[in-house]
Amino acid sequence: MSNGNAYSTDTQFAGLRVAITGGTSGLGLALVGELLHRGAQVAFVARRRDGVERVRRDYPGTHGIIGDVSKKHDIHPIAIQILGTLGGLDVLINNASDLGPVPLALLADTDCEDFERALATNVLGPFRLTKALLGSLAASAREGRGALVVNVSSDAAVNAYPYWGAYGASKAALYHLSRIWDEELSAQKIRILSFDPGDMDTPLHATAAPDADRSTLKRPETAARELGDAIAAVLSRGAPDSAVAACEAVG
Amino acid sequence: MIAASLPVQRPSNAKLLVVDRYGHIRHRMRSEFAELLRPGDVVIANDAATLPASLSGRHRPTGRPIEVRLAARDSLSPHDISRFSAVTFGAGDFRTRTEDRPKPPTLNPGDRLDLGPLRATVARVLNHPRFISLQFEGLPAEIWEGLSRHGRPIQYAHLQIPLEYWDTWTPIAGLPVAFEPPSAGFALDWRLLASLAARGVRFGTITHAAGISSTGDPELDALLPLNEPYRIPASTASMICAARSRRGRIIAVGTTVVRALEHAAGLYGAVRPGEGIATQKIGPSTRLRLVDAILSGTHEPGTSHYELLRAFVAQQTLPRINKELNAGSYRTHEFGDSVFLEKAALRNTHLPYWNNDRSIA
C-alpha cells in the first residue's frame, strides 16, 4: 500500500473492533485491507461462502461471516457472529449496496421487486443491523472506546441522476436516516456518519456503467484510506468521561 | 398471577408494583418507572444479548432425538466457547411443558451429538443424568456460525409462538452471552434512557451470562442459578462509586445485576471492575451490600429469582406483595409485568408491621 499518510501505521487502530458489510469486493474489500493494516480487528460480511473464504485466506486474522443484510432473518445471526468473534464492536461500516435494476433503468421501467431489493439492502439492512448492534456500540461509548457507524452513501443520494432512481432514492433515504440517527444518538456518544466515497473503479460501478473510462475513476483503496482517516478523526474526538474518571481513586 | 403469553417486550399497559423501603405498596404503570428515580441515582442493567441456546439434534449412539439447552459457561471470552454446561431433554420441543418432556437417552462421557451443523461430545455427566458438560468441535468462528444458524431461543410452554431473536434481545443487548433473556431489561427503551439522563440519573451496564430459569426437574432446579460469569466495566464501577459518594441509590434492572454487583462488592460499597464468576445464591438471609433497589419481573414462589427478591423485602411484607400481585391480575414470566422493590429499612425483623393498613394505594 502506498503510504504517504502520517495516520497510516499498523497500530493506529490497535484493539479497535470493526465490522464491514459487503467486504469481499470493491470498497468493502479495500476497507478490510486498510483497517487491518491500521491494526484493527476486522469482521466482514458477504453473501457468498466462496468469496468470504477467499478474503479470509487473503487477509489472515479477519473474521468472515456469511450473511445477507437485506434479509431480516440474517441480521441477528450476523450480529451474533460479529459480536462473538470480536467480543464487542466499536465501528460498523454499512457498505453493502444494491444497484436496483441491472442494467440501470428509468424509474418508469423499474420493477417493484428491484426497487424493493435496493431498499432492503441499502436502507433496511443498515437500519436493522445497526439497531441489533446498538447495545454493543453504546457499551463501547460508555467505556470510552468510541462508537461509530459509517453508512456508505453516494452523490446519487443528493443529485437526481436519470436511470439511478432505485439506487439514488434508497441512498437518499440512508443519508437522511444517518443524519437523524446521529442527532438522536448524540447523547449516547454514538456517531452515525454518512460517507460518500466518490465514483470508484469497483464491480458495482462496472455493472452500472460498463462503458465508463476506468482511468477516470477513483481506486477503492484511495477511498478506503480516506475513510480510515475520517474514522480516526472522529474517534480521536471522543474523550473519556471526566466525571467518571474522577471517582476511580475512591473506588 | 397470569402467564404473559405473547412476546411483547413493552406492552403499553404493563404494570409496576412499587414497594418502598417501609413496605408501602403502590400500583403504577411501568411507563412511569422514571418518575420513581431521583437525581444522583444510577440505574444498572445487564446488556447481555441472548444466545439461541436451544439446539435440537440426535444422540449418535442411540439415534434418538435430543434437545440440548446450553445453560452455563466458564467465561465470557469470545474465544472460549467450545465448552458449556447443558441441560438435556428427549423428543419434542418447548410446546410441551418441561416437566412433561420425555427424558433424553442415557448419556455417557464420550457420546457424540449431532446438533444441526454442530458436532459435540458429552465430556462429562454432571451431578444429574440430564445435566452434562458439552464439548463442541471446531474453531470458535465455526461454533459461533453454527450456534447463530441452528440455535433457537430457549422458551417455555406458556408461549406457544416460536420466539424470534429480536423477541429475546433487550433494546440494549450487546455481547451474546446470556442463555435466557435478562428480561427485566425489556422495560428499557432508548427514550427511557434519554429521560433518565434528563432527570440527572445515570445509566450503566454490566454483562452477565444469565442462565436458564427452569429445567422441569426439581433436583436440577435446586441447582439454579448456576455459576455465571460476568464483567463489570470500569466506567460502571466508577459510576457506582460516584453515586454512593453523593448518596445516590444503586438501582439494579434484573436479578442478574444484583447477583453480579453483590458478588463484586467490596467493603464500603466499592465495586471491583473486571470479570468474575458469580457463585453465590441470594435469598432472604442475604445482606445486600450495594444494591438499593431492583426493577424486576414478577417471579413465582419457589424459583431462584423469587428467592433473590426476598433479599429486598421484609419477611412480613411478602404475603402482602403476593396478595396485591394476584388481586391486581399482574402477569408473570419474561414478558409480564414488573415490580420495583426498594431494600427494606427493617429487614428480617419480626416486629409487628405498623403500616399494614396503608398497603393499597
What does this protein look like?
Chain A has 251 residues and is α/β, with parallel strands linked by helices. Chain A has one domain (17-208, 215-236): Rossmann fold. In chain A, 46% of the residues lie in helices and 12% in strands. Chain A has eight helices and six strands, in the order E-H-E-H-E-H-E-H-E-H-E-H-H-H. Chain A has a six-stranded parallel sheet with strand order 3-2-1-4-5-6, with helices on both faces. In chain A, helix 4 links the parallel strand 4 and strand 5. The radius of gyration of chain A is 18 Å and the shape is globular. Chain B has helices at 140-150, 165-168, 190-198, 218-221, 234-245, 255-264, 304-309, 318-327, and strands spanning 2-3, 15-19, 25-29, 42-46, 49-50, 54-59, 64-72, 83-89, 112-115, 118-128, 131-136, 176-178, 202-208, 228-232, 250-253, 274-278, 293-297, 331-332, 338-342. The model of chain B is unreliable at 349-361 (pLDDT under 50). Chain B is an alpha/beta fold and 361 residues long. Chain B has two domains: 2-49 and 162-358, QueA-like (3-Layer(aba) Sandwich); 53-150, QueA-like (Thrombin, subunit H). The relative contact order of chain B is 0.20. The chains are: A alpha/beta (251), B alpha/beta (361). The A-B interface holds A 63-66, 73, 75-81, 83-88, 132, 134-136, 138-139, 142-144, 184, 187-188, 241, 243-248, 250-251 and B 47, 49, 51-52, 77-78, 81, 140-141, 144-145, 147-149, 164-166, 169-176, 190, 193-194, 197, 204-205, 207, 233-242, 245, 270-271, 273.
Oligomer state of the chains in this structure: heterodimer
Distance between the termini of chain B: 19 Å
Helix share, percent of chain B: 10-25%
Strand order of the largest sheet of chain B: 3-2-19-17-15-4-13-14-16
- Average residue-wise pLDDT of chain B: 92
Strand-pairing-aware structural class of chain B: alpha/beta
What is the CATH third-level topology name of the largest domain in chain B? QueA-like
- What is the H/E string of chain B? EEEEEEEEEEEHHEHEHEHEHEEHHEE
On the 0-100 scale, what is the average pLDDT of chain A? Answer: 92
CATH architecture of chain A: 3-Layer(aba) Sandwich
The total strand number of chain A stands at 6
The fraction of residues assigned to DSSP E strands of chain A is 5-15%
| Shape annotation of chain B | globular
- Total number of distinct structural domains of chain A: 1
